[in-house]
Amino acid sequence: MDQIKQRMNALRLEADESSSKAEEYKAKVKTLEAENTQKEQEITSLTHKNQVLEGEIEKLEASVKTYKEEAAGGAASSTQAESLQRKIQVLEEEAEESDRTIRELNEKLRQTDVKSGHYERKVQALEQARDQWETKYEEMAKKYADTKKELDEFATEIGNI
């Protein structure tokens, strides 16, 4: 009978551990989902910034073209054209940096999705294990009740003798 109690206590401990692990994994999944949402927002922000920069580049390129045409008429125009060329170069570098950042964020997002899927599978596996332990616990509780009933009946019979 002590063995049954010990075993039931062990099963309860295992069930509690499984439940706590499941909660832990659920919390991790929520954290990863929050990170995923944050990364998506960063990507959206950087995409918008990139579009704005590309628009500015187009405007500056048009200005450069105009200034190049005017540069033929004067030395002052050539200085402005050079300045605009430098601005275009800086904006192009910023656009390239934004593109790199977007690619990195997309990769991080993909990795986060993979991790999230992995933890979801772990949570499902732990929930299944927990369900199995609960079923085993219920079976053992029923066996314990049946055995106790038999023992009580046997004790009653012995007492009647």
From TrEMBL:
InterPro entries named among the record's database cross-references: Tropomyosin
Keywords assigned by UniProt, alphabetized: Coiled coil
Domain of life: Eukaryota
Keyword Repeat tagged: no
Region annotated Disordered, chain positions: 1-23
PANTHER family named in the record: TROPOMYOSIN
Name used for this protein in its record: Tropomyosin
Organism: Lentithecium fluviatile CBS 122367
